[in-house]
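Notebook B, p. 112. Complex prediction, attempt 2.
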Amino acid sequence: MKKIAAVAVKELRQIVRDPLSLLMLLGLPAFMLVLYGFALNFDVRHVALAVQDRDHTAASRDLVSAFVNSTYFDLAATPAPGADLERLLERGRARGVLVIPEDYGRRLAAGETAPVQLLLDGADANTATTVLGYAGALVAEANTEELRRTVVRATGRDLPSPIEYRPYVWFNPELSTTQFLVPGLMGVLLMLTAVLATALSVVREKERGTMEQLRVAPLRTAELILGKTLPYLVISLAAAVIILVAARLLFAVEVKGSYLALLAATLLYLVGALGLGILISTLADSQALAFQGGLLVSLLPAVLLSGFIFQIRTMPAALQLVTHAVPARYYLVILRGVILKGTGLGPYWDQMGALALFALATLALASLRLVRHEG
Amino acid sequence: MAAAVELASLTKRFGAFTAVDRVSLVVEEGEVFGFLGANGAGKSTTIRMICGLLAPTAGTARVLGVDVARDPEEVKRRIGYMSQRFSLYEDLPVRQNLRFFGGVYGLRGRALAEREEWAIEMAGLRGKEDVLARLLAGGWKQRLALACAILHRPRVVFLDEPTSGVDPLSRRRFWSLIDSMSAEGVTVFVTTHYLEEAEHCHRLAMIHAGRLVALGTVAEMKSVFARQAVLEVRVPRVAEALDLLAGQPFVREVSAFGTRLHVTVDDEEEGRRRVLDLLERSGDVPAHAERIVPSLEDVFIHYVEAEEARGTPEAVRQ
């Protein structure tokens, strides 16, 4: 126990004497949160829309204002008939063009079907899909309205809508993606700093030869691992607090659930990350290699395979299988639950178990590798 | 009482390469034992096996009667080890280095404080307690590394090339520290490739290509030349003279030392006459030859050549 303290105190003194690294460990996560939080915004609003209204009737103006008033679309241009609509999209002046033909108003009034065309820039598939959804909904609404008017004209009686649709979004009523992204970012950033910090600190001892001095001392592997990881656990927890404070101040993301549950999940997650860091340090012989290796195994899976940005459900089956080995996948589910929904750990025992398993596996592998004699 | 170090057929192979080949030796308690050999001869590998840093392929190593393979932790508690690279935390000050290594060896409180003071005094680091280890000059760094290695009063201390890259004055000072440790009964096992340092050791082992080629006191080793004479020959064309003399049956050994040759012959007078005669006839003049006291270097070369003469046919047979 006291030997662990000796190692931990030494480690802390080294960290404190290197303010640049400390700043990186504590400041970088918050900085990246700001960067990602503002840049990674999947909300689709104010899409530039060009409207070619060849009809110029009250009916066509109604349709255009339905689009613009929805706030999903901004009127970017009104090309004259015969203008090159394709160029408009190519130059990026508009993401979509709504074309209303000449006899739109007349056909509607005559009870005929009136075609309306929407040209869409599909280069950004995500945005295009969302825009299609919006446009479809807007047109459907206009259709219903038109049908009602026809019925009223014909029968003199108003027709109630058969289905009244009343959506209510829970937990994130504004559907803002930052709410959703902050927990994910926390998972990514904590994994990144915890893995890199421990991996680099152990490899540094290897590079400088002090590891050999430690190995010849009567120090058990567990004592060495604990002594070296405890300081980084504390620092990573501090980084987590900084991330949460930044998220609250900048993105108004509040922790709705219990802080204790958050702490428990984060601790478990960090222990696994620190174990992973030590495991990497037993495989890499230079700080450069450890840095690259650490980046690869921490950042990539946490960003790509955790459900942070890409839905796991839509991945190919083989890749879905791989995601089971990514701790961020489980941590994210817990964080979203605790931070956004305000639940406790109750529904997440599976995830907690997976995190514990991951921590156990990395620590066991790391100690095995450390114990083994070289050569 | 058990010997401080006892090696029995200690062997280490890395794949097909045999780094240490069946080394057996005994070091008594309180001895300063020198382990000599060229770079790559297997000195560090041997020491690292004794300290439990490397598992032997075959054979055993015992320290104070404890088998390293059986109970490495017990061995680690009783020994001090200073590696070639003076493994210190360069980003920490002197005192923090001492405190850390003391803590790792289980020293604390008063005992730790006392040993810290002792170490600072011993290493001559008074007034430099708060200087970063990185900023210390070579000699100080070396003494701090030694202090860290012996803070816990080990009974056996292993020093791996402790004087490499240190100025001569610091080196001398370091050896007087070794002498005083030995006076207190500590066994010192030291590797070096500086042959002049070996004269400080009570006993020596010479290792070449992983094999022990000689073992004994300095005097015992030099006695291989007891019935022979070593002549130091000075001639203008050293390389030609070396070739010429190497082919002569009366010349036991010949080796070049810079601009001079060391020639071993059975009889001083006759040998001198025949050497000078040969050189004169070859036109390599003026030549001088005088008898010298053989150095450890002569001894080392003698054993290495003897070992290679023995080893070559074996290698050819393979």
